[in-house]
Prior knowledge:
Blueprint (H helix, E strand, L loop, with lengths): L2 E5 L2 E4 L4 E8 L7 E7 L6 E6 L7 E2 L7 E6 L4 E6 L8 E8 L15 E2 L3 E6 L1
Parallel strand pairs: 2-11
Antiparallel strand pairs: 1-3, 3-8, 4-5, 4-9, 5-6, 7-8, 9-10, 9-11
Amino acid sequence: xxxxxxxxxxxxxxxxxxxxxxxxxxxxxxxxxxxxxxxxxxxxxxxxxxxxxxxxxxxxxxxxxxxxxxxxxxxxxxxxxxxxxxxxxxxxxxxxxxxxxxxxxxxxxxxxxxxxxxxxxxxxxx
Length: 126
């Protein structure tokens, strides 16, 4: 199953940037589809961004498109999320997730991910 550990969260002013990292262990990282989800207080967990095995075909939620960039470094077994132009509505706990497949299911489908990190808090002040 492996383990995922997020870092890089914190408090930032609106318009600022943060870079989240997700260090993985105990799994063959290059063989896993990866994604970021987030959950704000009182809300359902929602998809933020996902990335294919090669990293060439990312997908994004409409709310973050053009502001966030997901990437992966298969040599370092690490997933990243660069977040720019942050807004107060981006405040949430951010989770990384790993999926061994299947290839035909959308990256935004939470049920495909069997391994989750513990989350990192991102707070954007206005």
